[in-house]
Write a structure and sequence with these properties.
Radius of gyration: 27 Å
Strand order of the largest sheet: 10-11-21-16-17-20
CATH architecture of one domain: 3-Layer(aba) Sandwich
CATH topology of one domain: Rossmann fold
GO molecular function, one term: pyridoxal phosphate binding
Shape: globular
Protein name: THNS1 protein
Cofactor: pyridoxal 5'-phosphate
CATH superfamily of one domain: P-loop containing nucleotide triphosphate hydrolases
Largest sheet: 6 strands, mixed
Keywords: Amino-acid biosynthesis, Pyridoxal phosphate
Number of strands: 22
Family: Belongs to the threonine synthase family.
CATH class of one domain: Alpha Beta
Structural class: alpha/beta
Strand content: 5-15%
Distance between the termini: 52 Å
Length: 738
């Protein structure tokens, strides 16, 4: 019997209670850029003779792919059906199934698997092996389970053409599609690595994908992150010890040099065939596939990631499609991002990120999350972190800073109503830019952060879009929107679309550009600004100029922003990761209030982005016009994007407009746009007034409930002073953790 021990990727995580960082120790350095797979595999022999275990539905090609992988690695190949089951039973699998029936077959198959042992082999499981828990646990202990994920429609076509009759569960009244869908839950439970397999992909190509995936699984040290204000890391031992991984940067939030974290080797690329294999998938399935490729299993294993995604999106969204795409008019489509619990696109990240954060942080350290919001982030982050398990709430708390007089009355009431025992709101007597800048300064104040760690055992972390983990869920919905248009027959895969997004902090726009980078055919990203149009001016001229600008309070407060944090990540990308240049530009912005791009960089930027802006008057007119012609109500931010899209699109391809919030969050503006009645200043009265008009679409399901809870709820108010903010932070830590 071979020696059994649980296989893990090559990174060992040691947690230190006195720091928010996780220390990563490398157990092995793989042969760089191995020329042949055999030599690569042998270089990892210190891990023991592990098996590569191929799993998937019947017809996935496990046997053929297994033989090819075995040939490339020059190792034994074992097919469970042919080499184990039929040898053990002395009869064919189909005969056994016919003799004993479905339930007894699964039990007998599992018993045979429990008696099976192998090492250093490629093993092709049967399609039903994963349905026997004990048998799978036994096999998985000494191997890496690779899931060949083939679309159900492709599997059905293959099986029907082969007239296969030995499928467990197939009987009169039970369809093949039902069986395949039922089995997915078992495949998802056991795999370590997923390999997407399109309809016409050759077995040789699948085999190479398997080997690439196994190598990635073992080479976790390669998926590191750098700051936008530094260069690529080198290869010295000192630099190796300072490498940062996903689990580090989720908790750290902002780099120590003031920059933002980005993946050192860029985002993963999906082939056209891989995207097409997701056309039939649900939103949750698409989310898991994309996040598996962006988050290494050494940071979060696939099974845990699946659990987190299901928790985030399974029941917390009112629409089963999570992020549906709706036709508006002509070639314009709306991506509805307001079906989450707090009625804005922020829910997509902030229902997910708290669970990622809770999994990644050391168990022996307390964390206080700092957030700055211009409106929608506040209620979303409060709601998201309040849904953590009780044990996590005891060690994770959150404080949300917002401009006291710079958000809508309903947004403010939401933030007060969403406060929980571990999550609080603090109004600041200033604007969003002050709140955001203050948080950045607090993070880079080593004296203050060090004091909190030593005195209270508490580390600070960020949940704003400066946190890399906030961007990943946004990439998903932009990709999913495109796939939905393909699924609906609006376009064929490969046809371009334009994207128009109301943007102030540039995070949502950056996520759309990242979706383009990973393979979604987005042609132009259109930035829509309100009267705080610094981004529009910058994209048109290459000059980012804050001199003499004052923030204007508009009807679309979520984009009332002058300093666009995530622009830094985009400039780092188009500048070929020149951290020195990025540092120079943003230091100049901070110290002199402006900077100018070089002509070559401006040229690159204008190939990707176009921009326009919209006045409050045009915003209200758009809301009225769209409702009059379609019966649909845009919120004020979506109306800004609609106006800009009308002006800038060339109508040669579909355009997807991000509908970033539900209209009922901005009731006074909607009542004014629709010319309904005199506006009452009480937020709850405003919602009741909107809901009283039966001709209008229903108000958001969560808003009334939250506002009813607000009642006479209170919140802290703070002066626009750094010392006052730090004092608030220390007091909240004392009250919650001590």
């Amino acid at each position: 019997m071979f020696h059994i021990f649980q296989y893990q990727p090559l990174r060992l995580i040691t947690q230190n209670s006195s720091s928010s960082m996780c220390l990563k120790l490398m157990l092995s350095r793989p042969v760089a850029f191995a020329q042949i797979w055999k030599s690569w595999f042998s270089s990892h022999s210190l891990l023991g003779k592990k098996n590569i275990i191929l799993m998937g539905p019947p017809g996935a090609g496990k046997t053929t792919v297994g033989r090819i992988v075995g040939q490339k690695l020059d190792c034994p190949v074992i097919d469970i059906d042919d080499d184990v089951l039929e040898t053990t039973w002395n009869m064919s699998v189909s005969e056994k199934l016919q003799n004993v029936g479905n339930e007894e077959f699964l039990e007998e198959e599992g018993k045979a698997l429990l008696k099976f042992s192998a090492s250093g082999s490629v093993i092709s499981l049967s399609g039903s092996n994963p349905m026997h828990a004990a048998g799978m646990q036994h096999v998985k202990t000494n191997g890496i389970v690779v899931y060949l994920d083939v679309p159900t429609t492709v599997i059905m076509s293959r099986l029907q053409s082969k007239q296969m009759d030995r499928i467990v569960g197939l009987s009169p009244g039970v369809s093949l599609k039902d069986i395949l869908q039922f089995r997915k839950q078992f495949y998802k439970r056991w795999f370590d690595i997923r390999v997407l397999c399109g309809g016409d992909i050759a077995a040789e190509v699948v085999a190479e994908k398997v080997l690439d995936a196994v190598k990635r699984y073992q080479d976790s040290e390669l998926e590191t992150f750098i700051s936008t204000r530094s260069g690529r890391s080198g290869s010295s031992m000192e630099e190796d010890s300072n490498k940062l991984y996903f689990s580090d940067i989720v908790t750290q939030g902002l780099a120590l040099d003031g920059g933002l974290f980005v993946p050192e080797r860029g985002l993963p690329k999906f082939t056209a065939e891989e995207w097409q294999s997701l056309i039939e998938a649900t939103y949750i399935e698409r989310a898991q596939v994309i996040l598996e490729r962006c988050i290494h299993p050494a940071d979060i294993p696939a099974s845990k990631l699946a659990e987190i995604i299901e928790t985030a999106y399974g029941e917390n969204f009112s629409c089963s499609k999570i992020a549906p795409v709706r036709h508006l008019a002509g070639n314009q489509f709306l991506l509805e991002l307001f079906h989450g619990p707090t009625a804005s696109f922020k829910d997509f990240a902030l229902q997910l990120v708290p669970h990622l954060f809770a999994y990644c942080i050391p168990r022996s350290c307390n964390y206080l999350i700092l957030v700055a919001t211009s409106g929608d982030t506040g209620s979303a982050v409060l709601d998201g972190f309040s849904r953590l398990h009780d044990t996590d709430k005891q060690r994770i708390a959150l404080v949300n800073f917002f401009p006291e007089d710079g958000v809508s009355p309903i947004q403010k009431s939401q933030m007060i109503g969403c406060q929980k025992e571990n999550a609080w709101s603090v109004g600041v007597k200033s604007d969003f830019d002050f709140c955001q800048t203050a948080i950045k300064q607090i993070f880079t104040n080593s004296d203050f952060t060090g004091f909190l760690t030593v005195e209270y055992g508490t580390a600070l972390a960020a949940a704003n879009s400066i946190n890399w983990a906030r961007l990943l869920p946004q990439i998903i919905y932009h990709a999913s929107a495109y796939l939905d248009l393909v699924h609906q027959g609006i376009i064929s895969f490969g046809s371009p679309v334009d994207i128009c997004i109301p943007t102030g902090n540039f995070g949502n726009m950056l996520a759309a550009f990242y979706a383009k980078m990973v393979g979604i055919p987005i042609r132009k990203c259109i930035c829509a600004s309100n009267e705080n149009n610094v981004l529009t001016d910058f994209i048109r001229t290459g000059v980012y100029d804050l001199r003499g600008r004052k923030l204007i309070s508009t009807l679309s407060p979520a984009v009332d922003i002058l300093k666009s944090s995530n622009l830094e990540r985009y400039l780092h990308l188009i500048a070929n990761e020149d951290g020195q240049l990025v540092t120079q530009l943003f230091n100049q912005l901070e110290n002199q209030g402006h900077f100018q791009l070089r002509k070559d960089l401006l040229g690159k930027l204008q190939q990707d982005l176009v921009a326009g802006w919209c006045s409050d008057e045009d915003c209200l007119a758009a809301i009225h016009s769209v409702y009059s012609t379609t019966g649909y109500i845009l919120d004020t931010h979506t109306a800004v994007a609609k106006v800009v899209a009308d002006r800038l699109q060339d109508r040669t391809c579909p355009i997807i407009i991000s509908s970033t919030a539900h209209y009922s969050k901005f009731a006074p503006a909607i009542l004014r746009a629709l010319r309904i009645a005199e506006i009452n200043q009480n937020p709850l009265s405003q919602l009741h007034l909107l809901s009283s008009y039966s001709a209008l679409p229903p108000i958001h399901w969560g808003l009334l409930e939250t506002l009813k809870k607000t009642g006479n709820g209170d919140h802290h108010v703070c002066a626009a002073d750094m010392s006052a903010l730090m004092s608030h932070i220390e007091t909240l830590i004392q009250n919650h953790f001590m």
